[in-house]
Amino acid sequence: MSSSVKEPNKMESANTKVPDDAQAPVINLVWDVIEHEEATSMLQNEGQRSARIVSQSRLRPEKKKWYGVRHTQILLLFLLILIGYGMRVNLSVGIVAMTDPETNPDFPTYNWTIKSTILSSFFWGYVIPQVGVGQLAERYGPKWFLTGSMLVSALFTILIPVMADLGAWGVIVCRVLQGFTQGFFYPCTHNLLSRWIPLSERSRMGTFVYAGGPLGTVITMPVTGWISASSIGWPSVFYIYGALGFGWVALWFWLGSNGPADHKSISAEERMYIEKSCQTSATKVPTPWKDMAKSLPLWSILIAHCGQNWGFWTLMTEIPTYMKGVLNFDIAANGLLSAAPYFALWVLSFFFSYLTDTLINRKIFSVAISRKLVTNIGLIGPAVSLVILGFIDSSNKGAVIALLIIAVGINSAIYCGYQVNHIDIAPNHAGTLMGLTNGAANILSICAPLLVQFIVTDEEDDSQWTIVWFIAAGVYVVCDLAFTFFGTGELLYWNDPDYCINKDGT
After folding, report:
1. Which residues are CB-contacts of 14 (< 8 A; sequence separation ≥ 6)?
2. Rounded Cα distance, 223 and 274, in Å
3. 150 exposed, middle or buried (CB, 10 Å; 0-12, 13-18, 19+)?
């Protein structure tokens, strides 16, 4: 008998004829397999989607935990900068007492004619380690470098009264060594910020840390003035700040960490949240020196940093001298009034940091435009104030002080502008970039007080101080324009670890 046949099945060979009653079980089996695979695939996809939802939820900071391990690190870095600035600026007021016999006759005074040289000598040592420290921090971690550098800085702070008896150059030696050790602070801090602060918190947290500098100034200037005029005298200022430095070392040794991956008690949720946002590589990334040298955005940060340091340190080192010579304030009032501009800076820094993070997080402006906006405010604002200061009569003391407060206070906007832009463009190289720009900029921190010493031959001559204010204003404006035209907020290609590794291997 002949039986009917179907067309050859695609799964069979072309010459095979399969009867209908034999083919049916095979077809059913194939369909069962297909349906099982589809069901399994759907379950896997659903499982993956659920896992992604859980993972994403874990990347968000827990609402109930308003304080995390990262906040402890930020607080420690804030204290580092605060105490470091106190050590750095206490001599700006202290040198008035150290050279004026009428301030406190119970303590030794010195006839030094190179006061601006003494004040600028801190930066002779400060500029030396910057780039190398950035590299060391990226390779070995910054914790122990910060520990050692603060320890030595505190030691030479305590030695200043002893070395002063040897003459001006004895103090200069202490200041150079203080500067060298504090040259570790900013590159290491920037490296830690790139590891610990998510983008959504970068402006606020970065500003909080670096605003420790002006707050240290606010505290140090009046405290130095009061202590210098008191029964314990100016030497006690240096002993107190040395002791504070030793105290910070103990806290950092106990609580500090190189990053979330190295911290023993951080929660998994907080660690994932930080590492996902920070975009720093877990492996050592070669430094793309040639690409850095050709990068206009990096050059724009460097130029803005140079302009900032020229103006900032002109005012920081010379306001106490200006207050005494032109405005005729005594040492106690001098310290308080000299600190007032930096208190305004510290307070306004919180407003500008909140504003910047709001602009970025709500996508009102891009990162680049937000950084440029606040940098413009922070550099152009002080320039305008200093120009006006140059035209008004110094006998109007209220107006003079108000303009100095405005000039320094508005300057706080830079802390959430170019100051954190290194982390925006290349978080894997943030420490090295800060070392580069901070090292170059602090060469101008040396030059600015020396130029003042050359221009101001009579500290009571207001017209000579006007030249100083105009020069600072011009530097502010020119350097701001560079960042406005060439700055960016995007990750640069040479931040990519694969690019750096492949290029380094070729």
Report:
1. 8
2. 38
3. buried
| Cβ-based neighbours of 147, under 8 Å, separated by 6 or more | 249, 252, 253, 256
DSSP class of 200? G
Q: How far is the C-alpha of 472 from the C-alpha of 417, rounded, in Å?
A: 19
99: Cβ–Cβ under 8 A, 6 or more apart, which residues?
109, 110, 111, 112, 115
Q: What is the C-alpha separation between 149 and 82, in angstroms, rounded?
A: 15
What number of CA atoms fall less than 13 Å from residue 492's CA on the CB side? 25
Torsions phi, psi for 85 (to 5 deg): -70, -35
Give the three-state DSSP class for 242. helix
**pLDDT tens, position by position, 217-268:** 889 888 998 899 888 999 999 999 999 999 999 999 999 999 898 888 888 8
DSSP 395: T
**Interatomic CA distance for residues 42 and 54, integer angstroms:** 18
pLDDT tens digits along 224-233 = 988 998 889 9
pLDDT of residue 47 exceeding 70, the answer is no
Give which of 306, 275, 302 is closest to 422, Cα–Cα: 302
Give, in degrees to the nearest 5, the angle at Cα 413 between 410 and 414. 120
Amino acid (1-letter code) at residue 227: I
Contact 209, 420 (CB under 8 A): no
Question: What is the distance between the alpha carbons of residues 265 and 440, in angstroms, rounded to a whole number?
Answer: 38
Model pLDDT, residue 261: 86
Residue type, 68: G
Instruction: For the beta carbon of residue 357, count every other beta carbon within 10 angstroms.
Output: 21
Architecture of the 68-505 domain: Up-down Bundle (1.20)
For the chain, the domains span 68-505
